[in-house]
Every structure is written in C-alpha cells, then in structure tokens.
UniProtKB/TrEMBL annotation:
Pfam families documented for this protein: Protoglobin
InterPro entries in the record: Globin-like_sf, Globin-sensor_dom, Globin/Proto
Taxonomy, superkingdom: Eukaryota
Annotated Globin-sensor domain residues: 51-237
Species of the source: Lentinula lateritia
Record's protein name: Protoglobin-domain-containing protein
Length: 237
C-alpha cells in the first residue's frame, strides 16, 4: 500500500469537543485553554528564587496552616533532634561513599582529622562540630517563618553548598564540598520518615489525630521543597 501524503491527513477530529456527550463528572476541559491556568515562565523558575518558591508553594499547596502546624509540633519533637542527627550520621557512616566525604576539613574547624576512613568515628571532634549545623537545620525546618524570603534563601544555599559551589559567606575560605544529589535526596527521605514517625507516636493529648495528619503533610511538603532546592542545582531543567 502506498503511504498517504501527509497533507491529506485531516486533523478536524482534534477540534471536536465531545465533553458535553460524556456523563457529568467525566467531562473534561483542556488545561491549555482553561482561563484559570497560571502562566509560569520556565526562565524565571530557573533564575528567580521567589518565583520558583511561589510556583512550588502553589503547586503543593504549602501555606499558613502548614507553618502553624510545624510550629506546634516543633516543641513536641525538639528534644529528639540530637538523636535524629546522631542516627543520620550513623546511617551516612554505613557506606563508604557517604562516609568518605567527612574526611575533609569543615569550615571553622581546626582540630585533628583522621586521614583513613577506618579511623574516622562518629564521635571524632569534627563530626561533633558538624552535627551542630545539622541540628540547626532540623530546628529551622520546624520553626522558620516561611513567609520570609530569607528562609528560602537559606534553604537554597544549603542546596548550593553541596554541589561544589560556594554559597555561605562563612564557607568562603574552605575547599568546595561536593556531595552527590543522590545522597542528599536519600538523607532527606530518611529525615522525613523519622520525623513523621515521631509525630505519629505523639500522645493524642499532645496532638490530635487531625493535627497529626496535617503535620505529616506539612513535613512532607517542606522536605520536598528543600529537596527541590537541592535538585535544582544539580539538574539541568
Ligand atoms: C538531608 C540532607 C542534608 C542536609 C539538610 C544538609 C545540611 C547541611 C548544612 C545545614 C550544612 C552546614 C551549612 C553551613 O555551613 O551553615 C551542611 C554541611 C555539610 N554537609 Fe550536608 N546536608 C545534607 C546531606 C549531606 C550528605 C548526604 C552529606 C555527605 C554524605 C553531607 C555532607 C556535608 C559536609 C561534609 C558539610 C560541610 C561542613 C563544613 O565544611 O562546614 N551533607 N549540610
């Protein structure tokens, strides 16, 4: 059979609207022609942090109720943060690919550093020092003012600094830190599970079931935003 010339193929069918022939509830509308569709500039998503954050917040519906429930949960889980951080480091020390990154010298730390992987322990001086930053990040996640651009700028800098690019002024004088995105994402997933499990285990007189559901959602959202603020510096969009 000889092929049909392209110009004879009719596309009329594409413009037929059959939605009024469908039962109610199954009627569809094309999102492209929907007047409520927001116009998002991919260029601004890349170049403007506030634009990116607005888009993400809208998409995952992150708002004041999320912030309120995070602030309510913060004092209830605050005492377990040091243990969460200890356990995260124990996890990172389970694998050579993640452990070896800690052989490098931290900004501001001038104490002794072992040169061999097997000599590096979880209680070595540099690790104790490093955990302070991680605890501070975890506390910020639960207590930050998410209406402030400074919060997002901090979370974005946390992402940037793991890619080998300098973002914090206090880290200007040290060798760049390079951590694969894979391990940052895995760590975020790990922290998310631990935090959510802790929330679910709270007594119901501390946090009602409804509040627990809200808190689980808020933690997922904020971890996912932090994840985006890592990923965007590794992935070419
Ligand atoms: C949950 C994911 C992670 C978060 C939220 C996170 C957060 C942070 C923060 C807040 C700092 C200090 C920033 C500052 O100087 O103010 C930091 C530094 C650092 N992170 Fe991460 N990190 C994550 C994953 C990882 C992973 C997977 C590794 C390695 C396997 C890693 C290795 C380091 C190292 C070596 C430093 C350098 C500290 C210094 O030189 O001062 N991080 N991270």
């Amino acid at each position: 059979m000889s092929p049909v010339p392209v110009e004879t193929i009719t596309t009329d069918i594409a413009s037929v609207d059959i939605s009024d022939q469908l039962p109610e509830g199954q009627r569809t509308s094309c999102p492209v022609s929907n007047p409520t569709t927001q116009e998002i500039s991919p260029e601004l998503l890349r170049t403007s942090l506030p634009d990116r954050i607005n888009y993400i917040k809208d998409f995952i519906m992150f708002g004041t109720p999320d912030q309120e429930i995070l602030h309510k949960v913060a004092p209830l889980v605050n005492d377990m943060i040091p243990q969460v951080v200890d356990d995260l480091y124990a996890k990172l020390f389970e694998f050579d690919v993640t452990k070896q990154i800690f052989l490098k010298r931290n900004e501001g730390f001038d104490g002794p550093i072992p040169s061999k992987l097997e000599d590096l322990t979880l209680d070595s001086a540099q690790l104790v020092y490093r955990k302070i930053f991680m605890k501070s990040w975890a506390r910020r996640v639960l207590t930050s003012d998410y209406s402030s651009g400074k919060t997002w700028a901090y979370m974005d800098k946390v992402g940037i600094m793991h890619t080998g690019v300098k973002s914090f002024r206090h880290r200007n004088h040290v060798a760049p830190l390079v951590v694969p995105y894979r391990d940052c994402a895995l760590s975020l997933g790990w922290v998310q599970t631990v935090l959510q499990t802790a929330i679910l285990k709270l007594d119901s007189d501390e946090l009602s079931n409804e509040e627990k559901i809200a808190a689980i959602g808020a933690v997922s959202k904020v971890i996912w935003i932090q994840n985006d603020l890592f990923a965007r510096h590794y992935i070419d969009e």
